[in-house]
């Protein structure tokens, strides 16, 4: 394949990428979040744009550098990310959910800064909506790619997420391995499809992981199985 072909592979395709860690506030100055840097999602957005796709990136808290030529929409909470994704879902061809979305949020978000007391503080949390699962339920021809951050039984949990959330591909990373996952420039991933393991990648720069992932996606969109 020549350079031009690679650059045109996703021409005319609308791609939605989510990146970063969502932020769930307790009060005006305190919040719950996670170690996601957003680098994987930004690299994916860039790789998709390099192939000619029309890319929108929905970004929660991130330390990644912005990318030229990509529309970035900033959000804070899981709920805001859900709304931002859903409002664009119908006209989207490919969704890649690299964001680390909070599973829980505080039931109460205090309007003013919480004051300390003697003794313990118990914070009650409630479930957020699973964005990817919602997209899976409402799928009408979109190609859906999820991520799975695991520390054990990677294949088992990745396949479970793929089936439960109606994904076309799941990118699993064992975040207990050094050089994989949160807050580093590299990743070690296994990509699963409905048929099982599709590609096992060695330790690579996130940029390279993104490029290989987009190659897989482009192949599967132009030559669907069955
Ligand atoms: N995800 C999502 N909305 C949520 C939680 C997760 O869209 N509220 C997405 C993530 O963006 C990711 C995939 O679901 O693409 C898997 O996230 P992960 O945290 O690995 O799995 P969970 O389903 O949340 O299960 P658990 O955390 O219990 O392993
Ligand atoms: Ca989770």
UniProtKB/TrEMBL annotation:
Residues 15-226 are annotated as: Phosphopantothenate--cysteine ligase. It catalyses: (R)-4'-phosphopantothenate + L-cysteine + CTP = N-[(R)-4-phosphopantothenoyl]-L-cysteine + CMP + diphosphate + H(+); N-[(R)-4-phosphopantothenoyl]-L-cysteine + H(+) = (R)-4'-phosphopantetheine + CO2. Keywords: Decarboxylase, Flavoprotein, FMN, Ligase, Lyase, Magnesium, Metal-binding, Multifunctional enzyme. The keyword Ligase applies. Its cofactor is Mg(2+); FMN. Pathway: Cofactor biosynthesis; coenzyme A biosynthesis; CoA from (R)-pantothenate: step 2/5; Cofactor biosynthesis; coenzyme A biosynthesis; CoA from (R)-pantothenate: step 3/5. The chain holds residues 176 to 401 of 405 of the full protein. Residues 10-219 form the DNA/pantothenate metabolism flavoprotein C-terminal domain. The keyword Lyase applies. Catalyzes two sequential steps in the biosynthesis of coenzyme A. In the first step cysteine is conjugated to 4'-phosphopantothenate to form 4-phosphopantothenoylcysteine. In the second step the latter compound is decarboxylated to form 4'-phosphopantotheine. It comes from Paenibacillus solisilvae. Its EC number is 4.1.1.36, 6.3.2.5. CTP binds at residues 103, 113, 147, 161, 165. GO terms for molecular function: phosphopantothenate--cysteine ligase activity; phosphopantothenoylcysteine decarboxylase activity. It comes from the Bacteria. Binds 1 FMN per subunit. In the C-terminal section; belongs to the PPC synthetase family. This is Coenzyme A biosynthesis bifunctional protein CoaBC.
């Amino acid at each position: 394949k020549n350079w031009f072909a690679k650059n045109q592979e996703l021409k005319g395709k609308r791609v939605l990428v989510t990146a970063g860690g969502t932020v769930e506030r307790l009060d005006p100055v305190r919040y719950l979040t996670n170690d996601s840097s957003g680098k994987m999602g930004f690299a994916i957005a860039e790789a998709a744009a390099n192939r000619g796709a029309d890319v929108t990136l929905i970004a929660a808290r991130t330390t990644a550098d912005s990318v030229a030529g990509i529309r970035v929409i900033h959000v804070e909470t899981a709920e805001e990310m859900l709304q931002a994704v859903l409002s664009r879902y119908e006209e989207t061809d490919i969704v890649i959910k690299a964001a680390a979305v909070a599973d829980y949020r505080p039931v109460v978000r205090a309007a003013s800064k919480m004051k300390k007391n003697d003794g313990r503080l118990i914070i009650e949390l409630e479930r957020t909506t699973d964005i990817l699962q919602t997209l899976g339920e409402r799928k009408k021809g979109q190609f859906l790619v999820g991520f799975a951050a695991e520390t054990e039984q990677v294949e088992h949990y990745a396949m479970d997420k793929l089936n439960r959330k109606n994904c076309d591909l799941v990118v699993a990373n064992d975040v207990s391995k050094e050089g994989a996952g949160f807050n580093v420039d590299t990743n070690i991933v296994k990509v699963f499809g409905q048929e099982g393991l599709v590609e096992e990648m060695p330790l690579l720069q996130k940029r390279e992981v993104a490029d290989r992932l987009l190659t897989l996606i482009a192949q599967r969109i132009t030559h669907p199985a069955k």
